[in-house]
Design a protein that fits this description.
Blueprint: E1 2-4, E2 11-16, E3 20-26, E4 32-37, E5 42-47, E6 54-62, E7 67-74
Antiparallel strand pairs: 1-2, 2-5, 3-4, 3-6, 6-7
């Protein structure tokens, strides 16, 4: 999984592998700001233009039910 550009002020690309089933983005207070089910390997484009500046957590859930998290920084 790769996230670029990071930090970003417009669009963040998220490259996911075929083992990922869901992508969820949380803001700094734990609210879900984006959620998407994934079918196979693909690149998601996340528009962050209207997001507040700061750090966001991107949670990846695998087909096996395991999860891991990466950080995205939004700048203005």
């Amino acid at each position: 999984v790769s996230i670029y550009p990071n930090p970003s002020n417009s669009v963040v690309n998220i490259d996911v592998t075929g083992n990922i089933s869901q992508v969820v983005v949380y803001n700094y207070v734990g609210q879900v700001v984006y959620e998407n089910n994934v079918n196979g390997a693909q690149t998601l484009q996340l528009n962050v233009r209207n997001y507040e500046s700061g750090a966001y957590l991107v949670k990846f859930i695998t087909r096996d039910g395991e999860s891991f998290t990466k950080k995205v920084v939004v700048t203005k």
